[in-house]
Amino acid sequence: MATLSFSINSSCLNTGICVSHKPVSRVGYLRTKVECKESRVGKKPIQVPSNVNLTFDGQFISVKGPLGELSRTYPNDIVIEREESILKVRKAVETRRANEMHGLFRTLIDNMVVGVSKGFEKQLILIGVGYRAQMEGNDLVLFLGFSHPVRMPVPEGLKVKVEENTRVIVSGYNKQSIGEFAAKVRKWRPPEPYKGKGIRYAGEVVRKKEGKAGKKK
User: Where are the alpha helices (DSSP H) in the chain?
Assistant: First the structure.
């Protein structure tokens, strides 16, 4: 806070008591530069396997591996450095936006490296009488109690497998595409809160509501 300046002008009251008048100048605040803390996620190094090739072109990065190829443009707020088989993501400037982008793009780039080398998968479970799924060519066909089956074409780059007619496994190298397709499948029959029927992710916990109680006699 800024230093206060006073000007003293004393006057005595009729009682003989002297009171000091101290007019206070305008109060101001000093702006200080606050350094943003480094993201705990962003400062973690990314391990690059030997079967993954990286290509940099300005703010553009391309990752190629045995399962496929992914690319992404990252902002000027961050810098990507490579040291042999390790990638490090650093902030280029000390701003709030750079702090936000630091952890985000470290996670996105790590997902690219893991995706093209190992891949990802997401499982969905169908719960309900008569609910089942099957593959017909490149289409996922769902029987969910509607008057007609639901047919969903599988996007390019994804693989869908059905086990025991009630378990759908979506796999691929692009984690974002897997999540989007799995969310579209789940959207047809989200788990209802009374009996838990519907489509849910493997390991998803569905909170159930208590049904209406009958009248007491």
Answer: 96-117, 175-187
Instruction: Give, to the nearest 10 degrees, the angle between helix 96-117 and helix 175-187.
Output: 90
The total of other beta-carbon atoms located within 10 Å of residue 145's CB is: 12
Q: Tokens representing 144?
A: 């969910």
Average per-residue pLDDT for the chain: 85
Torsion of CA 105, 111, 116, 122, to 10 degrees: -150
Segments of the chain with pLDDT less than 70: 1-37, 213-217
Both tokens assigned to 202: 């493997």
63-72 b/e with 16+ CB inside 10 Å = b?
bbbebbebee
Per the rule left: phi > 0, alpha: psi between -120 and 50, beta: everything else, 17 is beta
What pTM, to 2 d.p., does this model score? 0.76
Q: 57 to each of 53, 60, 63, 90, 104, how far by Cα in Å? A: 14, 5, 12, 17, 20
